[in-house]
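For the sake of transparency, this paper describes our internal protein records without simplification. Because each token names a local backbone shape, the row as a whole describes the fold. One such record is reproduced below, unchanged from the form in which we store it.
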Amino acid sequence: MSFFGGLILFIAIVGTATMVGNKLRGKETSSWKSIWGPFVFFGAIGLGLFISGQDEPTEPTRQLSPAEITAITLIRETMTRDVRHLLADNLSAHLDDGVAVLTESQAAYWVKDEEVYAANGIAMIYSPKIEKSPVNIDFDTVELAVKDGQ
């Protein structure tokens, strides 16, 4: 969150707390304050959220290699229809003459010679007809490969 976004949110919270405190203490407030208070509060929250997202740098996207694109396509074909959307955001990297793929939901796959293997139980659930990966390829090795590859 940016400094200005935080400042606007702080002002909105203090202003709302003051309004609520005055009402609880029975202090008279003019009608325009009671009408405009919620608008100011929600406007400040909205503006603060808008500003807070403006200074966050976006991560550059890495261009996938042809082998990684092929691996992701092959994995998608093995997945049951209802979980294919989980492959939308994934990390991939080369690993032991194959391609390691880790989905956002932590399903770990390894593809070698156009054969898809499950490196953990989540991948086995998402793709029940594929075989388990070799012993040296597990979730930890897939995770390490994709972190190093990014």
Residues 3-52 form one domain.
